[in-house]
């Protein structure tokens, strides 16, 4: 199985924000030490206010995000990332809640788009779009793992995955979990449709 998480993108954004704020603080600290005695102390001290506020905002943002987060894990698994036309992608979604959670909608979709460059710009066309709703108004209890399995069929006449300098045909599996009071968790995995 190939696994990815629906919640790592949000965590990564907050961790990156804290990392950038920390780096900025270290750079300003060295700047402050270098110019001590050459510039009025109160000017350098005033500079610490936005730097410290930014670091505090990033740290509190991460702590709040991790504390409020409704899931311990919500993962997407694929049995294989390549099938031939007429086959199907076997998808598994596992979720473990940290607190009582209401999932308004849990869905998986298989989508194919053709993207091409033209003289007037890019042109996109949807060749296939099929969504399967797995759950509606699903109540999760803390620590109780929930697993959903679904097969997303590829039509027998489906176009193959293709990539060139001018155009490409892309197949993706898109999973979305709409959680009450939080919003959408979404992840998209590019897959390949190719002969046997």
Detail the poorly predicted runs.
none
| Beta-strand proportion | over 45%
Task: Give the tally of β-strands.
Answer: 10
Mean pLDDT: 87
| Head-to-tail CA distance between termini | 19 Å
What class would the helix/strand composition place it in?
Answer: alpha+beta
Shape: flat
Radius of gyration (Å): 23 Å
Q: In sequence order, what are the helices and strands, one letter per element?
A: EHHEEEEEEEEE
- Percent range of helical residues: 25-40%
**Number of helical elements:** 2
* Subunit organisation of the chains: single chain
> Main beta sheet, described?
6 strands, mixed
Tell me what you see in this structure:
With 196 residues, this protein is of the alpha+beta class. 28% of the residues lie in helices and 49% in strands. It has 2 helices and 10 strands. A hairpin with a 3-residue loop joins strand 8 and strand 9. Helix 1 packs antiparallel against helix 2. The model has no long low-confidence stretch (mean pLDDT 87).
Which descriptors would you attach to this protein?
flat; 2 helices; 10 strands; four-stranded antiparallel sheet; 196 residues; alpha+beta; six-stranded mixed sheet
Summarize the structure.
The protein has 196 residues and is of the alpha+beta class. It is built from two helices and ten strands; from the N terminus they run E-H-H-E-E-E-E-E-E-E-E-E.
């Amino acid at each position: 199985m190939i696994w990815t998480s629906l919640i790592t993108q949000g965590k990564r954004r907050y961790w990156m924000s804290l990392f950038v704020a920390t780096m900025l603080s270290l750079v300003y600290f060295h700047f402050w030490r270098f110019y001590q005695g050459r510039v009025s102390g109160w000017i350098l001290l005033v500079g610490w206010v936005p730097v410290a506020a930014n670091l505090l905002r990033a740290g509190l943002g991460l702590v709040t995000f991790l504390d409020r987060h409704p899931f311990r894990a919500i993962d997407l698994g694929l049995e294989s990332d390549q099938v031939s036309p007429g086959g199907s992608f076997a998808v598994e979604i596992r979720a473990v809640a940290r607190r009582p959670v209401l999932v308004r909608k849990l869905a998986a979709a298989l989508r194919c788009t053709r993207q091409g460059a033209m003289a007037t710009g890019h042109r996109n066309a949807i060749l296939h779009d099929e969504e399967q709703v797995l759950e509606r108004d699903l109540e999760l209890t803390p620590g109780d793992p929930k697993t959903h399995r679904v097969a997303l069929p590829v039509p027998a006449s489906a176009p193959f995955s293709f990539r060139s300098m001018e155009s490409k045909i892309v197949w993706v599996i898109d999973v979305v979990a709409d959680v009450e009071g939080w919003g959408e968790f979404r992840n998209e995995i590019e897959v390949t449709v190719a002969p046997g």
